[in-house]
Amino acid sequence: MTALSVSHISKSFGSKLAVDDLSFSVAEGETFGFLGGNGAGKTTSLRMMLDIIPPDRGEIRVLGRPAARENATQIGFLPEERGLYRNMTALDTLIYFGRLKGLSGTDARSRGLALLERFGLSGEARKNIASFSKGMAQKVQIATALINRPRLLMLDEPFSGLDPINQALLEDEILRASREGAAVLFSTHIMQHAERLCDRLLILVKGRKRFEGTLSEALAGVSGNVTLSCRADPTALADVAEAHIAVSEHASDPEWKPWSVALKPGRTAADLLETCTREGFALRSFELPRPTLHDAFIAIAGTTSASGPEYPA
Amino acid sequence: MKIPRLNWRHVLLVASRDFRQTLRTRSFWLTVFLMPMLPVVGGLAGSRLAGDSEREKIVVIDPDGHMEPRLAAALHRVAPDIDVTPAPEALTKLQTEALDDAFRSYIAPPREDPHPPKGYVIAVPRNFPNDVHVRIWVSHNPGHTIITTINDVMSTGMRDAAMTQAGLSPAEAARINALEPTLSTRMPKHGLSDATLAKIAPTALAYILMLAVIMSAQWLLQAMVEERSGKLLEALLACITPDELLCGKLIATLEALVVLFAAWIGAGLLAAAILCPHLGLSFTQIVAPLTSLRMLIGAPFFLLTGSAALALICLAIGAQCETLREAQGMMMPVIFVLMLPVQMLLQMQVAGTATQAVAFARWVPIWTPFLDLPALSTQADWSIFAQGGLLLGFCILEAVVLTRVFRHALLRNDTGSKWGSLVAALLGQKDRAL
To answer: Which positions, given as ranges, span the membrane (chain A) (predicted)?
Structure first.
């Protein structure tokens, strides 16, 4: 079942177009990465999905219903700007947010206690947030998003500002929520987390969708440089667009030099290897480094003309 | 005009949290308990200070010894605590010119005594009343009563002597000197008319409202800024609407004000019960106006609507600001503009002056509760109903307009002029900085 469906939404603030004709959907049990640089429109899109601000155009459906504040009972949300009431205890904070999300007082209390125990804070349940370390407060913030066992978990830049322990904790919670059937959507500009967690991802550039698909689909469109170890200059080969000598700490034999080779558009590493074999071009090594999501993001977000690589959308 | 639909469960949850938060603050309890204590502490301190100032000492130099007993008796009649003593014999022998030097050290207060007595030296000339030059040295600005009494005693002495020399017997002279009319003065008890006594408690309610509004502004700004500066707004707004948040905060404020009103009115009644007998006032007469049906219905109505009208302004201003200091800076001129006329109008109403201006001001909703509370018993029914209705309508209109301001401000993240942003929101311009 589709947990979140966004269809052709747009939003402007004055003359500034923040989100432009955005469409995508997230299925239950799926982890969906919402990627983009600063000012790409991620937070505005999330606010529209939460009904904090309305879209100018388009439609948003959450768990089959139009986007509305009533859906908050099914949604867990961790905003980018996070804070807590400093003079409330951790447990009271969780009970308050749980009740705002439709839980009864008893359910909110038992769920809050369970979460605090899971996060190693059961001994601090009745202490004021003001006495907490930053890391402890971050755990409580994460718990407020999970208090109502959400069917749709929306996280805005969830890893920014978290210490490494809480980053790992949040990754575990995202995977747990996904395993339990919740749809997880998180915005980020840190690619390593998206690479580890996402089933699918969307890249937003200046309010417009530039890519939507799986990680392997994102990487497929990225051609990384081939590294060769050879005696002759590979620039003369037909498949090579440009080549330069790469810096290597292991170049023991000055006769064999490491070269970083960029291929011509449409040519693959296999084509280059075949050309080398056919033309008797002597090689000592032939390496094809695996491109990362970061490479894919740079390639996609950095492409501004239609002449760039084609990506499925 | 679209009336927002509210989820009352959310509203009451916000109200309950905010109310409990206010109850946990020290400043709230200081306000509740300290304010009623101030008049008592002030009164005690005043009487203590007044007691210190009454230490007075008078030395009388009377070489012939005729006038000193009469002076002492007369001065004790007007100031029972005064210490009147005859001068040491050595002083009486000094020449008049030498007395200036002798008394300089007597009159100058000793440095080691922080509360020196106030001193007088009265030198009655030898052969009084043949010599009528009475000299008085004073260490301070002399009291009018003391000087008048000295003058009366010395004048009486001169007239006695003159009449005796004219051939009257001393007893006859004394009788003539003692002649005086019997004055019968009729005035209202304690100078306060029944109508004035009936105004005391209702006017006190108006002042309580004024103080409560000023005091509660601080908690409201604190509550509003806490969420904005604590970066809680977005997490809250994912669950509830801005209207529900505003409404919850307003209810929490009114709850806190009810506690405050109850404490202050209770303390006022207790103080009146204790002090009235000492002041010769009738407690029943003062409290009676509060027990009329008009007051029992009208006072809570005007206290609550008046508080709400001003609390909404505080909330809208608090929502514009990132820090408490910034909010206080914005709130100060607003409080000044709203409350200064109230203070002046209340004084005019109590004094019974500028009745036209006060009657007009009653129709200005923001001032209505302050001016109607003291006049609930005396105004016409239609006038109270109309002004109450106008105030209620103003509160509703204010809620709708200020909700727009509140919504506009909540997710604003620009750094421009707060007043400019407030005016833009009031004019219905769209936020360009979300």
So the answer is: none
Average of pLDDT values for A226-250? 83
pLDDT interval class at B144 (50, 70, 90)? confident
**A242 with A215: CB under 8 angstroms?**
no
Instruction: Quickly tell me which residue has 């469906």 as its tokens.
Output: A5
A183 reaches B (C-beta below 8 A)? no
Residues 6+ apart with CB under 8 A from A311: A210, A211, A213, A217, A218, A221, A300
Edge to edge, the sheet with strand A152-156 lists: A75-78, A152-156, A183-188, A31-36, A200-205, A208-214
Tell me which of A52, A92, A128 to substitute to probe the interface with B (most B C-beta atoms closer than 10 Å): A52
Q: How many helices (H) and strands (E) does chain B have?
A: 17, 4
Flag whether residue A134 sits within 8 Å of chain B, measured between CB atoms. no
Question: What mean pLDDT is predicted for residues B280-284?
Answer: 77
What DSSP element (H or E) covers B191? none
Q: Which two tokens stand for residue A92?
A: 């009271």
Three-state DSSP state, B315: helix
Choose among B421, B102, B28: nearest CA to B256: B28
Reading the block at residue A115, the tokens are: 């979460």
Q: With contact defined as beta carbons under 8 Å apart, do A147 and A100 qualify? A: no
3-state SS assignment for residue A151? coil
Would you call A100 and B241 a contact, using CB atoms and an 8 Å cutoff?
Answer: no
Q: What is the pLDDT of residue B374?
A: 85
The pairing of strands A16-27 and B83-86 is: unpaired
